[in-house]
């Protein structure tokens, strides 16, 4: 595979950075956005573009897309990662905290998707992969804003997939459970049927698969990568 281009938003560390590296190894040209500066360094390390900016800024996202198109003329894959949102007992979260959660877990996908979808439609193909959470479909009080807005993301993904499948533009979510980019706690490890944390590389491998032509008939899905942790069918 040559000549294809992937944008990773929120790719400075953790799963986002692992996804950027995995896609680069698969032959994609890479553009990375992160707020920490690590994404800027990683993009350059991978021979591509790295920009320091926020997925909460339309201006920063537009700059990322414009530079990607100026350099390579196309966008084949968009990977959307997210930061960590507010946590508190559900009725103790303020209006401001709920709005922050929406920014971090839902609008982080909608904003860049608005920008890249017309490009993918013109190309007659593209794949968008959102890094969500295993708890999106089994809400946990540990992650209240994540659970609420990532459930909304699952609905958005279905709506997007319905509308853009005829243009061969796909969207899917990956739902990691306890992953090694999180603090290691024994009780968490013991709660997983596989009795271990997953790795960022394992999630990145699934992202790379969903980005590939081998996943050309998969869209609108939320795929768990959780070692069997979630119980619902």
Architecture overview:
This protein is an alpha/beta fold and 233 residues long. The chain contains seven helices and seven strands; from the N terminus they run E-H-E-H-E-H-E-H-E-H-E-H-H-E. The protein has a seven-stranded parallel β-sheet with strand order 3-2-1-4-5-6-7, sandwiched between helices. Helix 1 (14-25) packs across helix 7, helix 3 (58-72) runs parallel beside helix 4 and helix 4 (95-123) runs parallel beside helix 5. The longest helix is centred in the middle third of the chain and has 29 residues, at 95-123. The chain is globular and about 45 Å long. The termini are far apart.
Find the count of extended strands (DSSP E, 2+ residues). Answer: 7
Low-confidence stretches: none
Average residue pLDDT: 96
Largest sheet: 7 strands, parallel
Name the helicity range.
40-55%
Strand order of the largest sheet: 3-2-1-4-5-6-7
Class derived from helix and strand content? alpha/beta
The amount of beta strand, in percent, is: 15-25%
Give the overall silhouette: globular
């Amino acid at each position: 595979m040559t000549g294809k281009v992937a944008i990773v938003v929120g790719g400075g560390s953790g799963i986002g950075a692992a996804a950027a590296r995995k896609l680069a190894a698969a032959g994609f040209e890479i553009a990375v956005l992160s707020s920490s500066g690590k994404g800027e360094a990683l993009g350059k390390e991978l021979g591509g573009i790295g920009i320091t900016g926020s997925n909460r800024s339309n201006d920063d996202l537009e700059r990322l897309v414009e530079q990607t198109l100026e350099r390579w003329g196309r966008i084949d894959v968009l990977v959307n990662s997210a930061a960590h949102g507010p946590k508190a007992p559900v009725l103790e979260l303020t209006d401001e905290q709920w709005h922050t959660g929406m920014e971090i877990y839902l609008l982080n996908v909608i904003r860049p998707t608005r920008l890249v979808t017309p490009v993918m439609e013109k190309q007659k193909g593209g794949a968008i992969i959102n890094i969500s959470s295993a708890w999106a479909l089994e809400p946990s009080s540990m992650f209240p804003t994540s659970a609420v807005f990532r459930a909304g993301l699952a609905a958005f993904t279905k709506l997007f997939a319905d509308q853009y499948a005829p243009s061969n533009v796909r969207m899917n979510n990956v739902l990691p459970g306890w992953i090694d980019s999180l603090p290691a706690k024994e009780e968490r490890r013991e709660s997983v049927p596989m009795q271990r944390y997953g790795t960022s590389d394992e999630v990145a491998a699934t992202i790379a698969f969903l980005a590939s032509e081998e996943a050309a008939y998969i869209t609108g899905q939320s795929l768990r990568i959780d070692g069997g942790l979630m119980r619902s069918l």
